[in-house]
From TrEMBL:
Domain SWIM-type: 413-448
Pfam families: SWIM
Protein name: SWIM-type domain-containing protein
InterPro entries assigned to the protein according to its UniProt record, in alphabetical order: Znf_SWIM
Gene Ontology molecular function, alphabetical: zinc ion binding
Keywords: Metal-binding, Zinc, Zinc-finger
Length: 463
C-alpha cells in the first residue's frame, strides 16, 4: 500500500504542569494565514477531568490499529478552533474508527481560528491520567502557552507514515455520517449500564435495538436496530462513563444504501454527552473494513462540476461553527445539490467534517497535500479512463439512456445507470453497499458527456 509521510515540527513538547495544559502545535491554516506554530486559544477548562479523559480517548484511537494490531503506529490528533469550541479529531491506523471530542462553550480568549496538529506525548498522557475532578486546568493551544518546565525548549520533530486508507477515511466518514439518523438516546445510568454490557471481544458484532426507553443487545438484526461491528472497538468510551450524562446512537435507516441491507453489518456512531463537551466515535461496518473503501464519495466526485464548484465553495468557508448549505448556495449561486457535491470534493482534502449532533458540516483544514488526497480514488480514476477511451456504449438517445455496455479486459459489463447496477463481480459481491463500481461510474460520466454534446448540437441548430 502506498504511503505518504506526515512531518510534524513542534516548538517543544506539550506539557501539563502547575494546572496549566500547554498543547504544542505543528503547522496548519488559520484565518490569519498559514502558521508554523499557530496559537488558537488560552483559557480555563471548568470541567478538567472529563476534558483530560476525552483528550486521552482521542489520542488512544490515533495510536491504535484495531484490525490486525501491530506496534509502531503513532499519530497526533488534529484540533480545530471555530471561535465557539475546540474539536479534537483522530483516525485509527486501520481506518475503521474515527473519534472526535468537541469542547464546547470556551471560557477564555480565542486568539485565532483554524486547524493544526497537537503533540500528545507519553509524559503528557501520564499527566492527563492524574487530572482530578476538582483540579482547575488552564488550557492553551499554541506555543506561547507551554509551561516553563519544558526541558530545554528543543524542537520536537516527528515523521509518520500515513496509509492511503487513513487519508481517504476522513472524506468517507463525513459522507456516510450525513446519512445517519438518531436511533436511540439513553440518559445517565441507562447509558452506562448499556455500554458496560457490550461484549469486549474485538470481533463481536451485535445490534443495539430500542426497547422502550432503553436498548437491548441482539445477535441478529431487528427493526430500528443499530449495528455495532467489532464491539471491542468502542473501548475508548469506557474511561468516560463516569462522566456520561447521555448516550446517543446513530445509524443508517433500515435498508439504506448508505450502510447496507437490513441484514448486513453497517457503520454506526456513538456519542457520549459529557459535562461541557461531547465525544463521538464512528465505527466502520466490519472490523477489517476501513471507511476508506466504502465508496460513499464517488457519486459526488464523478460529477462534472464538483472540482470547480469546490473552488468556489472553499473560498466561502471561514471556520464557522457550522457550514450552512442553504447560505453557501445563496452566496455561491449554486444549487444545494451542487453545494453538497462540492463539500464532498472538499472532504477529500480533509477540509470538511460532519457533526451528527448538530446535523451540519464543519470546516477544518487537515495539514496534508490535498492534491495527493484527491488522487486516492482509483475506482473513479479507472472509470474516467473507461469513459475517455470509448469503452462505454449507451443504449438510447443522449440524455435519455438508462442502460449501457462497458467493454473491459474482463468482458462486457451491462449497466443500469440510474439504479447503479452492474453485471461485474464487484457489484454482485457488494450490491451497492460500498458505492458504485467503476463501470457504473464510467456509464454515468459517458451519459453526461453525451447529453452535453447533444445539448450543444441542439443549440447550434436553433441559431
Amino acid at each position: 500500500m502506498t504511503q505518504a509521510v506526515q512531518a510534524y515540527s513542534y516548538a517543544g513538547p506539550s506539557t501539563l504542569a502547575d494546572g496549566r495544559l500547554g498543547l504544542s502545535t505543528s503547522g496548519g491554516t488559520a484565518l490569519s494565514g498559514p502558521q508554523a506554530h499557530p496559537r488558537f486559544f488560552s483559557g480555563l477548562l471548568t470541567q478538567a477531568a472529563p476534558a483530560a479523559a476525552g483528550l486521552l480517548a482521542v489520542a488512544d484511537v490515533a495510536l491504535t490499529r484495531y484490525h490486525q494490531p501491530r506496534p509502531g503506529w503513532t499519530r497526533d490528533p488534529v484540533v480545530t478552533c471555530d471561535g465557539e469550541r475546540l474539536r479534537f479529531e483522530s483516525f485509527s491506523a486501520c481506518g475503521g474508527v474515527y473519534a472526535r471530542l468537541d469542547v464546547l462553550a470556551l471560557d477564555g480568549d480565542v486568539l485565532d481560528r483554524g486547524t493544526t496538529n497537537v503533540d500528545v506525548n507519553p509524559p503528557l498522557r501520564e499527566a492527563l491520567v492524574r487530572v482530578g475532578g476538582r483540579d482547575p486546568l488552564h488550557l492553551g493551544v499554541g506555543p506561547d502557552e507551554l509551561a516553563v518546565t519544558t526541558l530545554d525548549g528543543a524542537v520536537v520533530e516527528k515523521k509518520v507514515p500515513l496509509p492511503e486508507r487513513w487519508l481517504r477515511g476522513f472524506a468517507e466518514v463525513q459522507v456516510i455520517a450525513s446519512a445517519f439518523d438518531l436511533r436511540a438516546e439513553l440518559r445517565g445510568p441507562q447509558a452506562v449500564r448499556f455500554l458496560r454490557s457490550l461484549p469486549r471481544k474485538a470481533s463481536a458484532t451485535v445490534w443495539a435495538v430500542p426497547a422502550g426507553r432503553d436498548l437491548r443487545l441482539s445477535a441478529t438484526p431487528a427493526p430500528g436496530g443499530v449495528c455495532l461491528a467489532g464491539a471491542g472497538r468502542v473501548a475508548t468510551l469506557a474511561p468516560l462513563l463516569r462522566f456520561a450524562r447521555a448516550l446517543r446512537v446513530y445509524g443508517p435507516a433500515a435498508g439504506s444504501r448508505s450502510g447496507a441491507g437490513p441484514a448486513e453489518p453497517a457503520a454506526s456512531a456513538w456519542e457520549l454527552e459529557l459535562p461541557g463537551m461531547r465525544y463521538t466515535l464512528a465505527v466502520s461496518p466490519q472490523p477489517w473494513r476501513g471507511f476508506s473503501g466504502e465508496g460513499a464519495v464517488l457519486a459526488d466526485l464523478a460529477t462534472d462540476e464538483a472540482a470547480g464548484d469546490a473552488d468556489v465553495v472553499g473560498m466561502l468557508l471561514n471556520f464557522d461553527p457550522a457550514v450552512e448549505i442553504g447560505l453557501l448556495a445563496d452566496r455561491s449561486g449554486l444549487s444545494t445539490t451542487r453545494v453538497r457535491a462540492a463539500l464532498t470534493q472538499l472532504g477529500t482534502a480533509g477540509r470538511v467534517g460532519y457533526d451528527l449532533h448538530e446535523a451540519a458540516h464543519f470546516h477544518r483544514e487537515l495539514p496534508y497535500d490535498r492534491d495527493q488526497v484527491a488522487a486516492l480514488n482509483p475506482r473513479l480514476t479507472a472509470a474516467r479512463a473507461l469513459a475517455e477511451s470509448g469503452a462505454v456504449r449507451l443504449d438510447g438517445p443522449p440524455g435519455a439512456a438508462t442502460t449501457a455496455e462497458v467493454t473491459t479486459d474482463g468482458g462486457v459489463r451491462r449497466v443500469r445507470i440510474d439504479e447503479g447496477e452492474c453485471t461485474c463481480p464487484w457489484w454482485f459481491d457488494h450490491r451497492g453497499s460500498r458505492g458504485p463500481c467503476k463501470h457504473v461510474l464510467a456509464a454515468r460520466i459517458a451519459a453526461r458527456i453525451a447529453a452535453r454534446a447533444d445539448t450543444g448540437i441542439a443549440a447550434e441548430a436553433t441559431v
